[in-house]
Amino acid sequence: MQYVNLGQSGLQVSQYVLGTLTFGGDFGFDRAGSVDVKQAASMIALSRDAGINAIDTANLYSFGQAESILGEALLGQRDDWLLFSKARFRMHEGPNGSGASRQHLIPQVNDSLRRLKTDWLDFFWIHGWDGVTPVEETLEVMDSLVLAGKIRYWGVSNYSGWQLAKTKYLAEKLGYTAPVAQQIYYTAEGRDAEYELLPGGKEMGIGSMIWSPLGEGLLTGLIDRETPPQDGTRQGSTWTEPHISDRERLYQVIDVLKEVAAECGKTVPQVALAWVRQRPNVDSLVLGARNEAQLRENIASIHLTLTEAQMLKIEEAGRPAAIYPFWHRAQLALDLPSPAEKMYLEGWREIQGL
């Protein structure tokens, strides 16, 4: 296992992070998983033995149950782990039941600390943009939580490029503790982050941690044109994520992943994870699993290095459309690209036959 500094910080995080969306299963989250305390402890031990040093959770996961299970499973081990959690989404009824306001965030952080049986979080994510609360208020809250010792670093998740930039640079202007990382969705099929978030994060010194690099079960090798999602899985239920704009393109990616897996003698999810890990501007990946066997298989992909030809084959199958202004930059501005965007622009230029 290798370790990376998360953004412009001294926090060293393993390239793979243990995710806990599958912990619990109440309130409709049974479609993602139903890991109990005993199984969570086993998965934590497996991760530790592999060199993983960080665990990612959220108050939203089974509406607090995932955090409670994690807190129980980690008894006596708190100092051995980096703990990450999140808040923003609705946790109770009423006008202040969600958001990135002082009124919502402070009690949510306190609740997470109580469930996790800890005095501090090593990292805290704002789980999504709040378009109503002034950014200045959110920044002041995060700064106060850092100064109080309740969190040590913070970042944002599911922000757009301009939201990320506004948050970072306004924090610096006002003298508040600035975000150091973003947690975003990115897979061999879900490539939207290449437009702004991955290169923008790199340019701004914002680390990029990838959530659900297997597309919430889409890229496990169990789904293709002839095999629909099975009942009892996220994709075989009413689970709405991820959004798929072009299902044929998804199947093309799955086909190529299978081809490369056969070449390597590895599994489809191992190839999918290796591809994301080797892409530019990616720092770390959050791995979720329903059981120890899945987790062991996913972690083993850390030892797989795809060839340039294999990386390109997968990239071409899932290459996203060249939307404006990116097609314009690919056509006319490739003489002076930012290093963080160059590879993406070259791909879009190829789409246009230039």
TrEMBL record:
NADP-dependent oxidoreductase domain sequence ranges: 18-317
SUPFAM superfamilies: NAD(P)-linked oxidoreductase (SSF51430)
Alphabetical list of Pfam families matching this protein: Aldo_ket_red (PF00248)
UniProt key word Hydrolase: no
One cellular component term from this protein's GO annotations in UniProt: cytosol
Keyword Oxidoreductase: yes
A single MF term (Gene Ontology): oxidoreductase activity
Keywords: Oxidoreductase
InterPro entries: AKR_Detox_Biosynth (IPR050523), NAD(P)_OxRdtase_dom_sf (IPR036812), NADP_OxRdtase_dom (IPR023210)
The protein's name in its UniProt record: Aldo/keto reductase
Organism annotation: Cedecea neteri
